[in-house]
């Protein structure tokens, strides 16, 4: 089966200047991948006639489908429409259906039409008009020499609507597409190289119809298994067999699958076991509480949190002993133990979590450099602690602490 090749061209100076992040290309790539279309290049080009025309010519030489976003506004710096007309050598003419749609759009919103707005209904004569049901800039579909083009607005929700309603359903009618299935196995608490060593034999024995990719992120490593074939059910079953084979080797690190987040997995564990949790966050400053409460239904297991950033409140609210702070300091195993048990008692929860560290970039010492963090999880009859040696970056340290604390809670729920 021939590989269907796609190219994405994002147009706009604002993308090159970093004023706007190009989330469109990311979303389009994901959707095409799910359909078995291979994105061979993504190009970002500014509002320059020569550069845009060169991008068009370059894309046409290698792609079967070319998807263009941006540059369809009514102002003079929006060049996509006139340059597509130039590239395809056809005039821009009034499209009655497009003019009617733009007029109706403004009418429904009680807004006044301007001559520039009316011109949005004028399109290259050689394109197929594709209605934009959520905006004023129409989509434009072109076909030439077996290559298909779609020009869409850069506004994300407008682009997505055109892709979902028109482009994605049309692709299977143009090309024979393979069936591709992705499954994600999500791990935490183990680095990419260690994980690779652990599953090397299994990876080497994977069938040729299944590919494995390692996708590391902050404190996590995702294993993506991609299956190819002609029968979706068969592919799904083959992937599940491989997951079942590797799971005994990595089960203690696996917290979820596919789109499941660590905080979602924690919520499920707490709910199933009818347990509650409370937090005492110092260096993480409420970030872990934010993660937990981002999940709908977290009120059933999240009791509350304290952010005793100053030592005075570690003593007054959590009853950390003054002599503990004086002898060992705020960033110590002894202190986080007392913080965890203190917040456990304060909120009468089943688990108490604590974090205290030197987030940076200032405040480090030779004994406790920036990135030194202690975390703890307390429950009935136990206290588990862990020392982290993180980075020089403050935000990164806060995020990594969040992952480590949630993973410590996950382990304690499973083991205790």
TrEMBL record:
Name of protein: CinA-like protein
Top-level taxon of origin: Bacteria
UniProt cross-references to Gene3D superfamilies, sorted A to Z: 3.30.70.2860, CinA-like, MoaB/Mog-like domain
Domain MoaB/Mog: 7-173
PANTHER family (UniProt xref): NICOTINAMIDE-NUCLEOTIDE AMIDOHYDROLASE PNCC, NMN AMIDOHYDROLASE-LIKE PROTEIN YFAY
Membrane-spanning residues: none
SMART domains: MoCF_biosynth
Entry's family note: Belongs to the CinA family.
InterPro entries per record: CinA, CinA-like_C, CinA_C, CinA_KH, Competence-induced_CinA, MoaB/Mog-like_dom_sf, MoaB/Mog_dom
């Amino acid at each position: 089966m021939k590989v269907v090749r796609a190219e994405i061209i994002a147009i706009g100076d604002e993308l090159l200047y970093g004023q706007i992040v190009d989330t469109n290309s990311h979303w389009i790539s994901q959707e095409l991948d799910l359909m078995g279309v291979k994105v061979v290049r993504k190009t970002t080009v500014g509002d320059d006639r020569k550069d845009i025309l060169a991008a068009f010519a370059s894309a046409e030489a290698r792609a079967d489908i070319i998807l263009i976003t941006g540059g369809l506004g009514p102002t003079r710096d929006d060049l996509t429409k006139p340059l597509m007309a130039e590239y395809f050598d056809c005039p821009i003419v009034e499209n009655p259906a497009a003019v009617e749609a733009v007029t109706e759009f403004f009418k429904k919103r009680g807004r006044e039409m301007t001559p520039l707005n009316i011109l949005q209904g004028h399109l290259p004569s050689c394109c197929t008009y594709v209605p934009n049901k959520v905006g004023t800039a129409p989509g434009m579909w072109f076909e030439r020499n077996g290559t298909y083009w779609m020009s869409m607005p850069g506004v994300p929700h407008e682009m997505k609507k055109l892709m979902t309603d028109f482009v994605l359903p049309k692709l299977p009618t143009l090309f024979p597409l393979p069936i591709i299935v992705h499954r994600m196995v999500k791990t935490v608490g183990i680095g990419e190289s260690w994980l690779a060593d652990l599953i090397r034999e299994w990876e080497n024995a994977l069938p040729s119809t299944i590919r494995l990719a390692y996708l590391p992120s902050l404190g996590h490593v995702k294993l993506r298994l991609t299956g190819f074939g002609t029968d979706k059910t068969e592919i799904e079953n083959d992937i599940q067999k491989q997951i079942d084979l590797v799971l005994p080797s990595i089960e203690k690190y696996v917290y979820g699958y596919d789109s499941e987040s660590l905080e979602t997995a924690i919520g499920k564990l707490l709910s199933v076991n009818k347990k509650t949790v409370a937090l005492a966050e110092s260096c993480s400053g409420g970030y872990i509480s934010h993660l937990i409460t981002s999940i709908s239904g977290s009120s059933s297991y999240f009791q509350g949190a304290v952010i005793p950033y100053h030592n005075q409140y570690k003593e007054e609210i959590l009853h950390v002993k003054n002599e503990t702070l004086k002898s060992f300091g705020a960033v110590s195993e002894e202190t986080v133990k007392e913080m965890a048990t203190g917040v456990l008692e304060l909120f009468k929860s089943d688990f108490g979590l604590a974090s205290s560290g030197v987030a940076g970039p200032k405040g480090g010492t030779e004994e406790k450099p920036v990135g030194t963090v202690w975390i703890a999880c307390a429950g009935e009859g136990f206290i588990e602690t862990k020392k982290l040696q993180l980075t020089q970056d403050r935000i990164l340290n806060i995020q990594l602490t969040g992952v480590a604390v949630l993973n410590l809670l996950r382990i304690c729920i499973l083991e205790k």
